[in-house]
Design goal:
- The chain has 115 residues and is of the alpha+beta class.
- Helix content is 26%, strand content 17%.
- Strands 1-3-2 form a three-stranded antiparallel beta sheet.
- The two termini are 19 Å apart.
Length: 115
């Protein structure tokens, strides 16, 4: 079956709000932003130094349980790049012939980021 996100329209829509992060005025003042789902627990304070160099040119995501798939529940986002490519990425997401599912890459924005 497909993702549990499809069971509730609010859950599905909320995952796509990550795509809009580079447009949020309070975020655009930063070069990098760490986005995490609400169920992510940090055991200590983290900084950009914890991610190592080089930092991503676009974004970097956490590992998923399935090999080869990354989890959009943890994203280190290079805000200027994501803002510059926002329109193209949104067009890509909305033109998907499979609707909101990206095949082996998964559902919603996570599938789009993986594809």
């Amino acid at each position: 079956g497909y993702s549990h996100l499809y069971a509730n329209p609010d859950m599905l829509v909320s995952t796509f709000q990550r795509i809009d992060l580079p447009l949020v005025e309070e975020i655009t003042q930063y070069n990098y932003v760490l986005f995490t789902d609400a169920d992510v627990y940090f055991r200590h304070t983290i900084t950009l130094n914890d991610f190592g160099l080089p930092l991503p040119e676009s974004l970097s995501m956490g590992y998923e349980a399935r090999p080869g798939t990354l989890n959009a529940g943890v994203i280190l986002m290079h805000v200027p790049y994501m803002k510059k490519t926002y329109d193209d990425f949104l067009r890509f997401v909305l033109s998907n012939k499979r609707g909101m599912h990206f095949g082996a890459h998964g559902p919603a924005d996570q599938g789009a980021y993986n594809e």
